[in-house]
Amino acid sequence: MTAKPESPDVEPLWRELAGKAIRSERTKQGRTLGDVSERAGISPQYLSEVERGLKEPSSEMLASICGALGLRLVDLLRAGDRQLTGRRLRAVSPPATRPSGPVLLAA
Question: What does the alpha-carbon distance between residue 99 and residue 51 come to, in Å, rounded to a whole number?
């Protein structure tokens, strides 16, 4: 699977930011996927998918991964914030037109 090109106008997904921060910390510590995943109690394949932004891990999974890396969840949030700092994001604007006539809502 090829990575999608990053556009400066598109805000990245949380799972992508978290994955990059996790991989960055793991490689900075010189640790392997196997080492961190074993300590976190998850498979190396799952950790790899989290790092690549392909999986949306639960808060419990993130806490486990952060614990295996010696991080707090707030450290992960700050790392994501640092990735966004300096990015020029385009504001999301409402649709230019409103629907005409009645709008049906389904439950």
Answer: 41
The residues, any chain, with a CB within 8 Å of residue 98's CB and separated by 6 or more, are none
Residue written as token pair 């990015």? 87
**CATH for 14-84?**
1.10.260.40
Residue type, 50: V
Tokens 């921060």 map to which residue?
21
Find, among 79, 52, 46, the residue nearest to 65 by Cα. 46
Residue 28 has pLDDT above 50, yes or no: yes
DSSP single-letter state for residue 102: -
* Cα gap 63→89, rounded to integer Å: 29
The single residue listed with the structure tokens 């490689």 is 27
Cα–Cα distance for residue pair 52/75, rounded to 1 Å? 19
pLDDT digit string, tens, across residues 56-70: 999 999 999 999 999
Handedness of CA 46, 33, 20, 74 (dihedral sign): positive
